[in-house]
Amino acid sequence: MTARDHEVTTGPRRGTETAGRPAVVLLSGGLDSATCLAIARKQGFAPYALSFRYGQRHEAELQAAAKVAEAGQVVRHLVVAFDLRAFGGSALTDDIAVPKGRSVQQMGAGVPVTYVPARNTIFLSFALAWAETLSCADIFIGVNALDYSGYPDCRPAFVEAFERLATTATAMGTEQGQRVRVHAPLMRLDKAQIIAWGLKLGVDYGLTHSCYDPVQGLACGACDACLLRLKGFAEAGAEDPLDYAGGGHG
Questions:
Q1: Which of 66, 160, 184, 245 shows the smallest number of beta carbons within 10 Å?
Q2: pTM of this prediction?
């Protein structure tokens, strides 16, 4: 095991350990997860942020996750590394072109090649393992069923099924009678609603990164994630603070 297999990018903060009931928050560094972190803190949880280096081509999101974790005053930010490139099968982990310039209708037609097989199942499994060591029964994930290209692991049925599995699979569920709750507060919101909620909570979206195929660290402005983000800001009547490749601005 190397230093890249597990790393703490943000350690415990003084006074945060007892600031509220602990919750593990999956933090990609994107718009949705940043909003989800703010919601968890607003609801009184002490957030433990969990990010992953899984072989994604858009690893710039981890730099964003570190900034979002710092701004969100998490108790601890843990980055876990494993490599889904061993399996491939996705434009995010394999030599497959990331779709560009698609319409909303095209994005909603079937599961796109940017879907990473079993990714959220794996992420939630890691979150569950950490939650149990923290004696924590709450996990937050920023999945969204409306503006997330139809990924099967971003749908209500998936979250509900994993929640049942989590309670059955853990000692705190079977021996202590605790129900593990997987919070997905953004599930039925569109991007504009998510952005409006985040701005109300003071989320700095300039710290986030959404692009699937960044160009020298800048968002490409043409992949599904960028287009959905730009559409969301426009519909929310707000300006996207990110700079885009080619000198464009959101």
A1: 160
A2: 0.91
pLDDT in tens, the chain (250 residues): 343 445 555 555 444 444 689 999 999 999 999 999 999 999 999 999 999 999 998 788 999 999 999 999 999 999 999 999 999 999 999 999 999 988 877 877 778 889 999 999 999 999 999 999 999 999 999 998 876 557 889 899 999 999 999 999 998 988 888 899 999 999 999 999 999 999 999 999 999 999 999 988 889 999 999 999 999 999 999 999 999 986 555 5
Q: Which domains does the chain have, with CATH numbers?
A: 3-245 (3.40.50.620)
